[in-house]
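Let's practice the habit of predicting before peeking. Look at the sequence and jot down your guess about where helices and strands might fall. Then scroll down.
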Amino acid sequence: MDQLNKEEQKTLAGRLEARQMKEMITMYQRVVGKCFADCITEFKSNELNDHERKCVTTCFDKQSSAAERLSTRFQEKQTQFMQGP
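Done guessing? Here is the structure:
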């Protein structure tokens, strides 16, 4: 990273930020799809029943927690990369 001039560093940082945003949106879509597929079993009503509501909440919380841990590790590695050896 030190070999790049300021403009190149800024460009790279912008690309990394855009990629992170895209990956976050993709991850969110996957979580929603997984939780929906795992938890929504009946389409008798416009509302979720108690079981479905609890399942979706638990599923989303677990997936969000895992994604948060992964994001933290990614940021640590990115910081190490940006600082160099």
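How did you do? The chain has a mean pLDDT of 88.
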